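Schema walk-through. Below, the input block comes first and the output block second. Nothing else is stored per chain. Lengths vary across the set, and this one has 163 residues.
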Amino acid sequence: MVELAMFIVVSAIAVIGAAGTVLSRSVVYASLFLLLSLLAVAGIYVLIFSPFLALVQVLIYGGAIIVVVLFALMLTRLGDTNESLDNRQKPLAAVTGLAAMGILIATVIANKWPASVDPSPASFRDLSSTLFSRWAIPFELASVLLLVALIGAIVMAKPGDQK
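--- output ---
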């Protein structure tokens, strides 16, 4: 019963962080709400007895990715604009979001979930062998993509002769 209450609290924090990310008008606040959401997901990993994933979530996503996002924002920010963020696609986005939420809720209701699951944490040996054999190339590609994006942000923010 305590685990369920903790799961509900941590999940609510994750949803609040995700909603703050989407609804925030400031990009810096949005990235901080994203950090809150990512840390709550790490809490969910702790609740399902996966400390390695929780550690990776905090170090990689909560630490490195948020720092890269904030760094890119600081480099590419030319100043706050007073332009309106509303556009004609807002109603379509709301309808699409509500449809996706309806599909997710229908999926959760339609499935028969097990009453209890015996959690067994994965061994570090299995995780490391899978990570460095099967998933090594996708992780390296993602790191190269982030590096290229960071270099692009630096080049775009570089002061020079702007025509």
